Amino acid sequence: MTSPRLLAVSDLHVRHPENRAVADGLRPTSDGDWLIVAGDVAEQTEDVAEVLAVLRRRFARVIWVPGNHELWTRTKDPVPLRGEYRYQHLVDTCRELDVLTPEDEFPVWEGAGGPVVVAPLFLLYDYSFLPVGTSTFADGLAAAYTAGVVCTDEHLLFPDPHESRQAWCAARIEESRRRLDAIDPSLPTVLVNHWPLTRTPTRVLRYPEFALWCGTEATADWHVRYRATAVVYGHLHIPRVIYEDGVRFVEASLGYPREWKPRDERFGTTVTETLPRQVLPAPSSSGL
């Protein structure tokens, strides 16, 4: 076996059989490998629990953050909890599985590239990634609706008990900032969040209006402020590595079969070769 690695995957969306097979195939190459799961495992909580349980049996440590799909509540959902109550149910489920969440003490990776504090975050979005030509939330949302680009969150992601998703996002930012400020300043971090921490990754979206549902300007400098050696995210379904201020931003998404199958054909790769993504130690070169 190889030396332990810090690995990451996101957007498994296992309701698709092909994606379920990919998730079933995720395995460590070392007894000491950790796996970050950066959200959107599934929409049904029982599916989330099932996948995380399997991964926890394989990896030395599993760290999960929620995506928007885990927070959706459908009319016939067997777990009808909404908003923060649904999130807390998922946190409780993870704790039963010995899977770390944004509500737990941040672990320290001591393997190659460490020591590094791995900080799982749950930050949501506040519609501040506005479309070009707009300056307010109302104008931005109107522009998205006019373009026919509307995230399903508008119908299925409820902010209960907060008055809005923006209010919930603000509360999450405040709590996350408090905890990040308490980290030993001598230690670097790996910041993990389902939504991108900066707007830069959204610049390549096919439908730029979708950026409204992709993050918040409030975290634009966190990779610098909190000494990140890497930032892990998902949500966009555009797996790649980019750099901002010298920091590696790693999107670890699988995405939907209609997205990753053509990508594999185009690049001559397979998802089993590209996932999970290696976060630490930092690879000597980065690409898909």
Structural commentary:
By secondary structure, this protein is of the alpha/beta class. 30% of the residues lie in helices and 15% in strands. The protein is built from nine helices and ten strands. The protein has helices at 17-24, 45-58, 83-96, 137-146, 153-156, 165-181, 222-225, 257-267, 271-274; strands at residues 6-9, 34-37, 61-64, 108-109, 116-120, 189-192, 228-233, 240-244, 247-251, 277-280. It has a six-stranded mixed β-sheet. A four-stranded mixed β-sheet has the order 3-2-1-10, covered by helices on one side.
Strand content: 5-15%
Task: Give the helix proportion (percent range).
Answer: 25-40%
Spatial strand sequence of the major β-sheet? 4-5-6-7-9-8
Shape descriptor reads: globular
Distance between the termini: 24 Å
Q: Low-confidence stretches at least 5 residues in length (pLDDT < 50)?
A: none
Main sheet makeup: 6 strands, mixed
The ordered string of helix (H) and strand (E) elements is: EHEHEHEEHHHEHEEEHHE
Tell me the Rg in angstroms: 18 Å
Question: Any chance you could write out the topology, listing elements then pairs?
Answer:
Blueprint: E1 6-9, H1 17-24, E2 34-37, H2 45-58, E3 61-64, H3 83-96, E4 108-109, E5 116-120, H4 137-146, H5 153-156, H6 165-181, E6 189-192, H7 222-225, E7 228-233, E8 240-244, E9 247-251, H8 257-267, H9 271-274, E10 277-280
Parallel strand pairs: 1-2, 2-3, 5-6, 6-7, 7-9
Antiparallel strand pairs: 1-10, 4-5, 8-9
